[in-house]
Amino acid sequence: MSKLYSCSECRMNYRDPKIARKCREWCKKYRSCNLEIIKHAVNE
Ligand SMILES: [Zn+2]
């Protein structure tokens, strides 16, 4: 079982902590989702 990292702003889950952090920074700054980031999200 792999650990998932979630964005505390949009609640998307990621396998890569670096991407999760990127997402969180983006969400805080822009209040919207970046398609380039959320395409890495996993749905579990
Ligand atoms: Zn996010």
Structure, explained:
The chain has 44 residues and is mainly α. The chain has helices spanning 17-30, 35-38, and strands at 5-6, 13-14. It has one domain (5-38). The protein contains 2 helices and 2 strands; from the N terminus they run E-E-H-H. A hairpin with a 6-residue loop joins strand 1 and strand 2. The chain is globular, with a radius of gyration of 9 Å. The chain starts with a strand and ends in a 6-residue tail after the last helix. The structure holds zinc ion. Residues 7, 9-10, 12, 23-24, 27 line the site of zinc ion (ZN).
List keywords for this structure.
two-stranded antiparallel ribbon; about 40% helix; 2 helices; about 45 residues; 2 strands; binds zinc ion; globular; mainly alpha
Strand content: 5-15%
Distance between the termini: 11 Å
| Strand ordering within the main sheet | 1-2
Bound molecules: zinc ion
The biggest beta sheet is recorded as: 2 strands, antiparallel
Provide the succession of SSEs: EEHH
Question: Quick one: overall form?
Answer: globular
Residue windows where pLDDT falls under 50 for at least 5 positions: none
Residue-averaged pLDDT: 93
Residues in helices, as a percent range? 40-55%
Round the Cα radius of gyration to an integer and report it: 9 Å
* Overall strand count: 2
Strand-pairing-aware structural class: mainly alpha
Number of domains: 1
Tally of helical runs: 2
Give the gist of this structure:
This protein has 44 residues and is mainly α. The chain has one domain.
